[in-house]
TrEMBL record:
Organism: Enterovibrio coralii
Transmembrane regions listed in the UniProt entry: none
Record key words, sorted: Hydrolase
Single GO cellular component term: cytosol
Coiled-coil annotated residue ranges, if any: none
Name of the protein in question: Nucleotide pyrophosphohydrolase
GO biological process, one term: DNA protection
Amino acid sequence: MKNTDQTNAFSRLQQEMTDFAKERDWDQFHNPKNLVMALTGEVGELNELFQWLTPEQAENFPADKQEALAHELADIQLYLLRLAEKCHIDLEAACDRKIALNKAKYPVEKCFGKSLKYNEL
C-alpha cells in the first residue's frame, strides 16, 4: 500500500538532489558505481560515530553528537535515494516487497525471540 506522504517526500528529495547535482554539473559523476562508493563512505562515517561506544552508550547516543548523527543519516538517505533514481528503482515499492518477503521468511511463530537466519529456523 502506497503512503502518499512518503512517496511525495522521496520524490521531492530526489528532485532536489537532481537539481542540486545539475546546478553544479555533478550529474556527470553520479553514476551508480560512484554513488555506491559515496554511500559506502557515508556509512563508514556513521560507523565511526558508534565505533567505540558500548551497547548502552549507543542506545543513549550522546546528546553532543546528535547533530553529527543526523547529518550522517541524512547523507546516507540522500545518496540512497539518488542511487535508486539512477537505477530506476522505485524505492518505496522495493521496500514494500522486501518487507513482505521478510514476513514470509521470518514467520512470527518460528522466529519470535530468536536471532537465527531464516534457513536456520
